[in-house]
């Protein structure tokens, strides 16, 4: 029997797991048998997501929720330690938490606005991955690190140059870590979502003018949904991906190929 996607006995951390793409990932990981800790920056939203996931999988002991600002070094280290205590171990870590730009022209952008995006989208990935990698190296059993980037990393992001810069940095960082951590059997990959319906993109996808301009460019002829990321999340945590590292997986309904 071919069972490489069975995640029973394994544990995962998903930052930004209280909504959007992260919630879709957490849901699929649980369905595949893993134990999961979701992180979010807001207590009420995180607890609601934890309760929903617990009800869906039928075992509240397999789902844990933590509030964490991933741009804060002390909070990340403490929350990762708490996640390990709750889960017993961490085999896969998804650095998915992120913030969007505000449609600001570069000529009008302040340094504070540029840094706001880098703090979460770049420094947050660094801090999360560092905590996870230290744990995985210490355990000596390998593991999987996955960063959520964006198609903005490979396409021009007009009025969102700071967002594009942050996601391009993440893809480069992932490639470097894939080489650096391979000796520890730690695989490192990135996921590049296209236009997905989330809290971050809600304003854009509900704008008729924007939708009329963008949807015709998506061969799949629909916006992506959070559950479209369940399969790749399970794959990258599983034995099926044992020889996959340093890659970027574009999931965009064909948008970047049009």
Descriptive report:
- Helix 3 (73-87) packs parallel to helix 4 and helix 4 packs parallel to helix 5 (161-181).
- Strands 3-2-1-4-5-6-7 form a seven-stranded parallel beta sheet, with helices on both faces.
- The longest helix is centred in the middle third of the chain and has 29 residues, at 111-139.
- Helix 4 (111-139) links the parallel strand 4 (92-95) and strand 5 (143-148).
- With 258 residues, it is of the alpha/beta class.
- The mean pLDDT is 97.
- It contains eight helices and seven strands; from the N terminus they run E-H-E-H-E-H-E-H-E-H-E-H-H-H-E.
- The termini are far apart.
- It is globular.
Question: Any chance you could write out the topology, listing elements then pairs?
Answer:
Elements: E1 11-15, H1 20-31, E2 35-40, H2 43-57, E3 63-67, H3 73-87, E4 92-95, H4 111-139, E5 143-148, H5 161-181, E6 186-193, H6 202-205, H7 208-214, H8 230-237, E7 248-251
Parallel strand pairs: 1-2, 1-4, 2-3, 4-5, 5-6, 6-7
Helix pairs in contact: 1-2, 1-8, 3-4, 4-5
**C-alpha-based Rg, rounded:** 17 Å
SS element count, helices: 8
Name the helicity range. 40-55%
The strand line-up of the biggest sheet is: 3-2-1-4-5-6-7
Helix and strand pattern: EHEHEHEHEHEHHHE
The average pLDDT score comes to 97
In brief:
This protein has helices spanning 20-31, 43-57, 73-87, 111-139, 161-181, 202-205, 208-214, 230-237; strands at residues 11-15, 35-40, 63-67, 92-95, 143-148, 186-193, 248-251. The chain is an alpha/beta fold and 258 residues long.
